[in-house]
Amino acid sequence: MTIDEIIKEARPKMEATISRLVEELKKIRAGRANPEIVDGIMVSYYGTTTPLREMASISVPESTQIAIKPWDRNALSDIETAIRNSDLGLSPINDGVSVRLVLPPLTEERRKQIASQVKKMGEEARVALRNVRGEAWAKVQEGEKRKEVTEDDRYMAEEELNKLIGEMNKKVDQSAADKEAEILKI
User: Fold this and answer.
1) Cα torsion for 173, 26, 17, 185, to the nearest 10°?
2) Which end of the chain is more exposed for a tag (fewer CB within 10 A), N or C?
3) Structural domain of residue 69, as residue ranges?
4) Do 3 and 140 contact (CB within 8 A), yes or no?
5) Eight-class DSSP state of 185
6) How many C-beta atoms surround the C-beta of residue 29 within 10 A?
């Protein structure tokens, strides 16, 4: 396996790690209502576990409220139960037509807790990136042992991997910093 192939194989894995981080950060509540908060909720509907997004329209009528209007009104109580049982910590309001979630304002203490959670998620992403880099580096060293990679190629690969990890770490830092700023903004 050539150095270019090893690096081309590592880049998509690193980008997937960043994509996962960005998706996870979207789900974190930052004081404003965001429909992605309810993305992971699964509803038991007629004996089948169904994602909430597939059975209702989700909108944000106000900055502190999420409205969930099911396509089948018979699903209202199932949706309400699923939200109560989720880890959101919100009390759904069933008005007979839709389910409303009112997001209370975040306290300063809660904002700091969420910000530290974001930092932790960023660090976990950096660890995942280092693991991908470690796998690629191991392949380079293995290639050198088998005489497929020269010493110059190994130095070049190390330089390329360091440049790649630096670029990806900047993306992680930027994503985490943006979310942290959004959370701490009052």
Assistant:
1) 10
2) C
3) 35-102
4) yes
5) -
6) 18
Tokens representing 166 are: 């630096």
Cβ atoms of residues 139 and 1 within 8 Å: yes
The model's pTM = 0.72
Mean pLDDT of 136-140: 91
Q: Do 43 and 53 form a contact (C-beta atoms < 8 A)?
A: no
Q: Which residue has the higher pLDDT, 1 or 6?
A: 6
Residue 180: both structure tokens together? 């942290």
- Amino acid type, 77: S
E strand map for 36-145: 42-45, 48-51, 56-62, 65-70, 92-94, 99-102
Beta strands in 35-97 (DSSP E): 42-45, 48-51, 56-62, 65-70, 92-94
Question: Looking at the structure, do residues 19 and 59 belong to the same domain, yes or no?
Answer: no
Q: Position 116: which residue type?
A: S
Q: Token pair for residue 127?
A: 């660890």
Same domain, 151 and 90: no
